[in-house]
Design a protein that fits this description.
By secondary structure, the protein is of the alpha+beta class. The chain has helices spanning 2-13, 64-81, and strands spanning 17-22, 30-35, 38-43, 55-59. The protein is built from two helices and four strands; from the N terminus they run αββββα. α1 (2-13) packs antiparallel against α2 (64-81). The N and C termini lie far apart (34 Å).
Length: 103
């Protein structure tokens, strides 16, 4: 956790991370599923452990390459400090929200 703290401190100081956070267990969550024109609320847990999103990072960077570089550093940190830990890191651009104050 110390290594993760150092990584996040560096990334925030560099201005590349706008927001990050861990997510509570799915047992504490609620899923709203829409099917056949109806919304249904399902109390957690609602996913298999291999499908759980455990956290997120929102980068504010000038390019996909820079976001990929920081994501690779995040993955490499896990490889060094948590050998044998298996996970996936998905990188996607956020779609702009019309009339958002962030635009």
């Amino acid at each position: 956790m110390e290594a993760m703290g150092s990584f996040l401190e560096e990334a925030f100081a560099a201005g590349v991370i706008a927001e990050t956070g861990g997510l509570a267990p799915t047992a504490e969550g609620v899923l709203i599923r829409v099917r056949d024109g109806e919304a249904r609320v399902i109390d957690g847990p609602f996913t298999e452990a291999k499908e759980v999103v455990g956290g997120y990072v929102i980068y504010e960077v000038p390019s996909r390459d820079v976001a990929l570089e920081w994501s690779r550093r995040f993955v490499d940190l896990h490889l060094r400090h948590w050998p044998g830990f298996e996970f996936e890191c998905e990188l996607r651009e956020m779609e702009p929200v019309p009339n958002s104050p962030r635009l």
